[in-house]
Amino acid sequence: MIRLFDTHYIRQTQELDGMWDFCMEGFDKPYKLPVPGCWEQHPDFLQYRGKGTYTRKVYIKNGGNVRLEFKGVSHTADVYFDGEKIAHHYNAFTPFSAAVKNVAAGEHEIKVHVDNTFGEHSALHIPNDYYTYGGITRPVSFEIVPDVYIKNVHFTPYMANGKWNAMTEVRVCNLSDETVNAEVRITLAGHAESGVIQIPGCSEVCAVFESEFENVKAWSHEDPALYMLNTVLVLNGEEADDLIERVGFRTVEVRDTKIYLNGAPIYLKGFNRHEDYAVDGCAVSLQHMVQDMDMMQDMNVNAVRTCHYPNDERFLDLCDERGIMVWEENHARGLVLEDMQNPNFEKQCEDCIREMIENHYNHPSIVIWGILNECASETEEGRRMYKKQYDQIKSMDTSRPTTSATCRHFTDICLDLPDVVSFNMYSGWYKDCPIDERNDQEIEWIKKSGGDNKPIIVSELGAAAIYGYRDRSRCKWSEERQADLIRDNLEVYMNDDRITGVFIWQFADCRVTEEGEWFATRARCHNNKGVVDEYRRPKMAYDTVKEMFKKYGGA
Ligand code: ADA
């Protein structure tokens, strides 16, 4: 399943989930592996960091233009169609597509060379406190599109004269050499509009609709109202293509020290959640996504942070449906200046931000875009790159605020750049210090260092515990200590009106790489700060969070 709703009624589309042929580079032993999936789930590839090739056949009944969309390949893909290279993509966490014109009816071959190796070619997937898996790890769709088809639709809601309005941008792509006239029709909640556009050969044109809507409800945490936005492309009087999006009417603004949703101040309370599950790797199944969501909602969250990369759209669809507000961020974790000076870094970040916003723009649940978790924001060169990425986000989307989670305490020189200032703080775990005093120091420094009069989020707080390790001494690594530290931290942060949100690190234990100077010191080669373990078995802190999020922070 690609999304939690049908995205086409007219366009021919087929999902390529299932068993693909696989072979590891340099070996001709044939395997069959599931897609989506990680090769690490197979006993022969538990720790395999290398290259492999996935292959499958597809049958086309009538000829046409083929469009392949990969929602995620970890971490680099080279895609071949009948032996011709049609796509190259870096980054496991963003989708990419490729079109092949005038394909004949009959059987065809798709081959995907996948690479999850580390090295200079990979500036973002590096040895880290999460695992870079290998495989076609998110769903794949196969479509037949007309010469002129709908590339994407972006919906930007806003309030005007007390009524919900929206700008709808429909990007249409013309694969043919000829100029084509097309009619674009949009319908939402009984409202219908249409317009005619002319698309020159081999180009794209954007049709823009400005609409006022009657009888629609706002999207909110308490009442996440969603609407289907149907876009149809009419060519020569025939309905030739369509795209269905699901949207919500809501606005997000930053005013002074608060974040406002639909004009009301919000307090974000939730978890940092890695896409990692014991038996799935990063190819988290829908069932396990739903289980994660059910457990987080059982703990009374209203938000989630997609640490540290764009998430699977099915999870974002779940957040839309459940009213869970999302901090989605580009792919980066803990990169020092030397890492950011990798010659591939800036392009790989730029591509990730563009693909994240282009593909996830319509999710009402996404209320903030984040960048560069704990990267080199204490350096002038780092500042240049932070500013470049914030500017890129604003050039694509002015409807959402920006932020970045810093750990450059007292040295960060980028706090003036984002709309919201966020900091990661592990008082009581990495530093035995009074939580409230350390919090006061941090906020006073933030206010003097460019972050004055901005909303502040504690983007990480937490402690580790080994599941099942109970100790009446409440010593470090016991479940008791983790519960105590999370309680003590939340007591401070959720009772400080200078703070507008908290994200606990982290929802579930996750696998980390054995490579890297210190990750190997992680017990079990896992980051053990989850309030549930990688099998989603709750630790004592689960009930602590459930109680604290019920007690504080509003609905
Ligand atoms: C950092 C980082 C997280 C995780 C955490 C920890 O704040 O942002 O990804 O590594 O520390 O567990 O230490």
UniProtKB/TrEMBL annotation:
In its UniProt record, a GO molecular function of this protein is:
carbohydrate binding
Enzyme kind, highest EC tier: hydrolase
Q: Which UniProt keywords apply?
A: Glycosidase, Hydrolase
What Gene3D superfamilies would the database entry show?
Answer: Galactose-binding domain-like (2.60.120.260), Glycosidases (3.20.20.80), Immunoglobulins (2.60.40.10)
Q: Report the residue ranges that make up the Glycoside hydrolase family 2 immunoglobulin-like beta-sandwich domain in this protein.
A: 148-250
Q: Where is the Glycoside hydrolase family 2 catalytic domain?
A: 252-550
One Pfam family of this chain: Glyco_hydro_2_N2
Ranges where the Beta-mannosidase-like galactose-binding domain occurs: 55-123
Query: Which branch of life, at top level?
Result: Bacteria
Q: Give the residue spans that cross the bilayer.
A: none
GO terms for biological process? carbohydrate metabolic process; glucuronoside catabolic process
EC numbers for this chain = 3.2.1.31
Name the protein family. Belongs to the glycosyl hydrolase 2 family.
User: This chain belongs to which protein, by name?
Assistant: Beta-glucuronidase
Organism expressing this protein natively? Candidatus Ornithomonoglobus merdipullorum
